[in-house]
Amino acid sequence: MTFDVPAPEIQWAILLCLATPWLLLLTRWLPVGVAHRFNITAAAIVAVYAVASSFAVSDASQIKPMAAGAALIVSALVFVLGFWGVLTRGYSVALLIALSHLGGTARADEIENAYSGGRGLRWLAEKRLSGLASARAIILAGDHVAVSRGTGAAILRAYSIFRKCFRLKEYG
Amino acid sequence: MVELFLPFASFAVFVSVVIAVFRLVEIVRVMLALCVAFLAVLAATVAVATAVLRDVDFWFFFSVFLCLFLIFVLVFSLFYKSISLRLLFDIHERKNGRAPLEWVYTESILTGSFQRRLALLEEDRLISRRNDTVMLTPEGGRTVHRLLAAQKLLGISDSG
């Protein structure tokens, strides 16, 4: 294995990886919702990398460092997405914050109602069901809900394989 | 050819190691275990490749292996803690794979996910419970303080 100085494409990618959280920070002043801010950041980072690396690629031998740089960019975006997801959609995070807003001590039903700035756990259930319905994993019919045979069944197969493979005690 | 193959082979070894460890031992710090397994496989591959494979570029190997690892962690987290997936599973487990909406809220969310998550937070010593009362521990208070500071910095007004 060789440990040479990384190619310019990889150097560009490392710089952009380091810039990703700062760019996400800058998007707080954009007039868009939280859900779109990560997408805008990701699009900007990918666009800058595409332009920067296209200047560097001169022959076929440069494809490899370009691919390595692209892998680094994807890594940075996935890493930041993980933290972004926890801060914006995290269940444990929202429960802890709800408990904190209640003064640090509360009954379970008080947390249930104070969840996510007072929207409550019923709102969470509706939001998640709506997301599953949009993904066509479930079918909403009146006051009942059913798992869809296509997407829903496929997701459940993957979920079952995961649970069997890793034998995790707690989930969801 | 070997250079292209190496990160994928290392990733396959990493996944095998993780599956073996998770099946043999009950892991409490799941993310820490994944990171340790990643670093162990990375170090082992670099050591072997340095001795045996002369033409493999470290940066290409590291970038692709890191990317595969982080995508794996993202998918793993999704399956491990996702409320939506658990909800789907609970509905599927009901008779005929159908459930009343009220049952979804009371059984899957309130009795299920909510209580399980409180138990996990208690296991992590972020909260303590006495009868029906939940209390933030000093560590939990510090964690909330850090989370709120991060949310404020990033301009996130609420979560959940």
List keywords for this structure.
heterodimer; A: 172 residues; mainly alpha; two-stranded antiparallel ribbon; 7 helices; 71% helix; B: 160 residues; Arc Repressor Mutant, subunit A; extended
Separate helix tally of chain A? 7
- How are the strands of the biggest sheet of chain B laid out side by side? 2-3
Q: Provide the structure class of chain A.
A: mainly alpha
Percent helix among the residues of chain B?
over 70%
Number of domains of chain B: 2
Give the topology string of chain B: H per helix, E per strand.
HHHHEHEEH
Number of helices of chain B: 6
Which chains make the largest contact?
A: A-B, 81 and 87 residues
The average pLDDT value of chain A, as a whole number, equals 90
Topology order of chain A in helix (H) and strand (E) letters: HHHHEHHEEH
- Overall pLDDT of chain B: 91
Explain the overall architecture.
By secondary structure, chain A is mainly alpha-helical. Chain A has seven helices and three strands; from the N terminus they run H-H-H-H-E-H-H-E-E-H. Helix content of chain A is 71%, strand content 6%. In chain A, strands 2-3 form a two-stranded antiparallel ribbon. Chain A starts with 7 loop residues before the first helix and ends in a 6-residue tail after the last helix. By secondary structure, chain B is mainly alpha-helical. Chain B has two domains: 80 residues; 71 residues, Arc Repressor Mutant, subunit A (Orthogonal Bundle), CATH 1.10.10. The N and C termini of chain B lie far apart (46 Å). At the A-B interface, helix 1, helix 3, helix 4, strand 1 and helix 5 of A face helix 1, helix 2, helix 3, helix 4 and strand 1 of B. Strand 3 of chain A pairs antiparallel with strand 1 of chain B.
Please sum up the structure shown.
The complex is a heterodimer of chains A (172) and B (160). Chain A is mostly helical.
SSE blueprint and pairings:
The complex is a heterodimer of chains A (about 170) and B (about 160).
Chain A: H1 8-26, H2 34-56, H3 63-89, H4 91-101, E1 105-107, H5 108-118, H6 120-134, E2 138-141, E3 144-147, H7 151-166
Helix pairs in contact in A: 1-2, 1-3, 2-3, 4-5, 5-6
Chain B: H1 2-24, H2 30-52, H3 58-81, H4 83-93, E1 98-100, H5 101-123, E2 127-130, E3 133-136, H6 138-154
Helix pairs in contact in B: 1-2, 1-3, 2-3, 4-5
